[in-house]
Every structure is written in C-alpha cells, then in structure tokens.
UniProtKB/TrEMBL annotation:
Domain GNAT-like C-terminal: 120-264
Name of the featured protein: GNAT-like C-terminal domain-containing protein
Pfam family, one: GNAT_C
Highest taxon above the source species: Bacteria
Domain N-acyltransferase N-terminal: from-to ranges: 27-118
Xref: InterPro entries: GNAT_C (IPR041644), NAT_N (IPR041273)
Length: 269
C-alpha cells in the first residue's frame, strides 16, 4: 500500500484506500509514469488503457502525480488554496466514476490531465484554462482567432450565484494578469433554449446573460446529460423530478433541440 500525498476535498476515504492499494497493480514506478505522462501523453494513455484495472490505476497515478504538481505550484508561488481547490476535481470525478461503474477510479483522465499539467485552475466557483482563441469572435471584442483568452468551465458544486461567478472572473483576471480579460465558454448553460425553460431570475440564466452567445453546438447532448443525469434515445424515458427536468422533457417531446452554446464575455478591471 502506498500513501496518498494529499487529503483533497471531495475524495472519500474509500477512494483513498482503493487508490493506495492499487500500487500493487501499477505497471511502472511513480517516477517512470510521471516521465511518460509528460513526454508522451498519448502513449501513457494507450498503455494504461490496456491494463485491466485502468480506471483505478488512473486514480492511483494521478493522486501520486499531485506531488509533482504541488512542487510546480510552489515554484510559481501559486497559493496553496488554489492547489487544493483545483485538485478537488479528482474526488469529484472519482464519485462520478463510482456512480457509473460501482468501482473506484477515474474515467475523465484526459480532462484531469489538464490540472496536472498546470493548464487549468479552479479560482473560486469557476475553472479557467488559458488557450488560444479557437473561434472567430465579433469584432467588438478586439480578439482574433489565435489570441490568448480564458476558457471557462463550470464544475458541479455550490450554487452558481452571480456574485460567486463575478468574484471568479475578477480573480482569474488577476491570476493570469489579463487586462482586459476575455472569457470564452462552450457549455449547455449557454443553450439559448433555456430562456424558454427557466425563470428569468434563475442562476443559470443570469450566468448565461453575462455572455454574448456566438453560436450553438447542434451535435452536443450535454444539456440532456446534465439536466437528466443520463442520455436516452427517447425523451419520454427521461425523469421529471425537478422543474427544469419537466420543462426540458416537454421541450424535447415537442421536437425542439437543446444544443450547447458558444459564448464570449469581456471583463475590464
């Protein structure tokens, strides 16, 4: 059994114990795995996915890799609370894996690799990923495709209040030294149809109203997955346990889509 280096929020004691015991299944030493993770990430994924207990091994290795990430945080003088807040995502996604499979592990290993490579940070209620803008934006934003922007992600957790989101945007602008900061987002929360399904004062619509929606992702079913907790081929099979579930189900049964939206917002200091 190998010790787990940090007691991250959201990570259960059972998950910690399962990860610690997985050391006996590990095909590489922690240092060998870390080197491969950084030098050839696709190969790391392929090799680990070939293992019978791959999801559990991802949990084991990723928790061990946080040792190295922590050193980088210290080198960059990033506050410790940002470290713990960012890596609480491991526990969050471990719970999702357990709910889906009944076994401890990680299925979102590609997503969580961003955290370990210091390409994504949790700053308050939201997560931010510095990227080169992948889209052509309206000229008013003064941003061209390829310019630096902050990609916004919305983890599950506490209520998505306007004040919490605004505090996150302000913190991100300071953290990344971007003035003015331009934020982009691809999310089901930016689905234009939500204006027909939710009260105008809802937190989701207040979040959406902070963005200029520049397009929709017609292929995305993220809205259905997030609203109902699953995907069904026939909308009539969806549950109706909340106001949003009831209204979204009626919307879908009427033949209307729920695409994810693309949005942009600009923040001046």
């Amino acid at each position: 059994m190998t010790d787990i280096p940090f007691d991250f929020p959201e990570l259960t004691a059972q998950a910690r114990e399962a990860a610690a015991c997985a050391a006996n299944l590990a095909p590489w030493s922690i240092l060998e795995a870390w080197r491969l993770f950084h030098t050839d990430l696709p190969r790391f994924f392929r090799a680990l996915n070939a293992e019978p207990d791959s999801s559990l091994l991802y949990l084991f290795y990723y928790l061990q890799f946080t040792r190295f990430a922590y050193r980088k945080y210290q080198e960059r003088k990033i506050p410790e609370d940002v470290f713990y807040h960012t890596f609480s995502d491991i526990g969050r996604w471990e719970k999702v894996c357990f709910e889906h499979t009944g076994a401890h592990g990680l299925e979102e290993y590609e997503w969580l690799s961003l955290h370990l490579r210091l390409q994504l940070f949790a700053l308050g209620r939201l997560q931010f990923q510095p990227v080169c803008c992948p889209w052509d934006l309206p000229a008013v934003y003064g941003i061209q495709k390829g310019d630096p922007v902050l990609n916004v992600h919305i983890p599950s957790g506490s209520r998505l209040t306007p004040s919490a989101c605004e505090a996150s945007y302000q913190q991100a602008a300071r953290f990344f030294s971007m003035q003015p900061a331009v934020f982009i987002c691809h999310s089901w929360l930016l689905c234009p149809a939500l204006k027909n399904l939710l009260p105008s004062g809802s937190n989701i619509l207040q979040f959406q109203n902070e963005y200029t929606i520049t397009g929709v992702d017609a292929e995305s079913r993220q809205a259905e997955e997030r609203i109902f907790g699953c995907l069904k081929s026939c909308p009539s099979e969806y549950p109706e346990n909340s106001y949003l579930q009831k209204s979204a189900k009626t919307w879908l049964l009427s033949g209307n889509p729920l695409p994810a939206g693309y949005g942009v917002r600009r923040l001046f200091s």
